[in-house]
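TL;DR need structure tokens for one chain.
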Amino acid sequence: MKYIDYKDLRQKLQNHEITWLEAYDKIINSTTKPWDTKEWKEKRPNFIGTECVMCGRKNGDPCTKGYYEYLLQHSGEPIERPTVHLVLQHSWHPDTIDHLCKNITYRYKDEYDSYFRQTVYTKGPNNILIRNIDADELKHIHKKLSVKFIDEKYPELGLEAIYKYLDQFERYMSMKDTSTYCNNCAEREDMVDRSICPLCKDIYISNSSACCYECKDTEEGQRLSAEQEKRDDEISKKYWAFLEVIEIEEDQLHNKYFNEPLTNEEKELIKKRLEELENMKNNSWDYIEY
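>> reply
TL;DR here they are.
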């Protein structure tokens, strides 16, 4: 299967025509990128604008000074200043199906760790554990084992992960999280997490900078730098306060799990909540206003 027909895949799952594991195999064996599909190409003209929202350049305009300097540094010889073309840039990306499966094994970490040890090790003389998988294979074994573990122990959660993946994939294909960038701004954001200077719109800066080195000593540059410093301080306080709230709840849940008599259902609810909290920590910036 080269391209995921998510609607057809969802329908087959709902009709019990395929298992979650068969759907998983179709997803990981997909090779065609969404932007190479007919659906994407038909939708694209309705979403792409006439100029880059970052630097203001249009199709055929000369590239930014910052990008040209970058090219000159790496070329080793004089080159002509290239022009730009417009692209759709996503501000949100879906989870991979393997990441969603990994979240399930984290929820049942103790059980999965035991399953992993039984698969990877055998007992030799004097009960010494011997690894029966070579080092190279061990690097990739978790991916294979996590899927096998889910299929044997919790196939309903595997199905849940597939549906979540399809929901996210459908959102990605909707293009509602896209903006129009020039190819230079898109590359700088994707590769090194850089944005364009808001004053000259010609040099790329890090997210911690208010403006570029050429603009920082101007009156407007100094004003932006002061505002940035104040904003960074406020964001830092929100970030640490957010983590503190999560850690307090995690401590309470761990204490309850290990020290109070609980039903299996109650334990499962605690595990699920701990997984949610871990995801919140890993994606903390999605929960903080800044």
